[in-house]
Structures are given as C-alpha cells and as structure tokens.
Amino acid sequence: MQDKEEERSLINVEKKLSSDGFTEDFTVREGRLCSFNSENKKTYGPEDVTIVDFYRFEGESDPDDMSILYALETNDGLKGTISSAFGTYADSDSLEFFKQVEDLGKNLKKAHK
C-alpha cells in the first residue's frame, strides 16, 4: 500500500484515475463542461454531471497556490477529470459550475475507490 503522501501527488492521482477509466480531460466554458478528447464535442450542464471524487493539493512553496482535481462522470457515462486553481487563484467559471453541481445534490458519488 502506498503511503498517503505518495498517493496524494497529482501525477499519481491522475494515473490512478486514468487506470480506473477517467480518461477524458474536461474544461468549463460558458457554463458548460466540455471534453478536450471526445470526438462528439458534446457539452454538459451541471445537471448532467456527477462529482465522483475530488482531491485538493497545496503548493509546496506557497500554501495559497492550491489546486483541486475533480473526477467526474457525465449522464451518458463519459468519465474524466478537470483540475482548477483553488483559493486565491480560482477560476470563477469552474467554481460556479461545480457549485451548481453540488447544489443539485449530485456531488460525491463516492463509488470510486
């Protein structure tokens, strides 16, 4: 079993999620979740997305340099991740989108191990 510090590195978390099928890279544009990889260019509203898990990371040299990585699943089964600055440098579009997902009660499915 990996120790907690090793498990919590962004690269290791992304590798683990990718091996578990979270292979899409998402971004938020104009209030919609968009995939970088998908051929179908479909976008998703907050009602179409479930937050399966999330991970917070602090910058080594600056605690204000924080990021968050979300593991997401869409209503049509697309699974992927999105990372965003957290705290001082947060992306307001992403924050607003994920606040709406949480307000819909669709956050933290926690089925992912």
Task: Give keywords.
6-stranded mixed β-sheet; 113 residues; Phosphoribosylpyrophosphate synthetase; 35% strand
Structural class: alpha+beta
Low-confidence stretches: 1-6
State the major sheet: 6 strands, mixed
> How many domains is the backbone divided into?
1
Fraction of residues in helix: 10-25%
Helix and strand run: HHEEEEEEH
Overall pLDDT confidence? 80
Query: Beta fraction of the residues?
Result: 25-35%
Order of strands, main sheet, comes to 3-2-1-6-5-4
* Overall form: globular
The counted number of beta strands is 6
Determine Rg (CA atoms, Å).
14 Å
Q: Give the N-to-C terminal Cα separation.
A: 13 Å
Count of helical regions: 3
Organism: Hymenobacter cellulosilyticus
Protein name: Phosphoribosylpyrophosphate synthetase
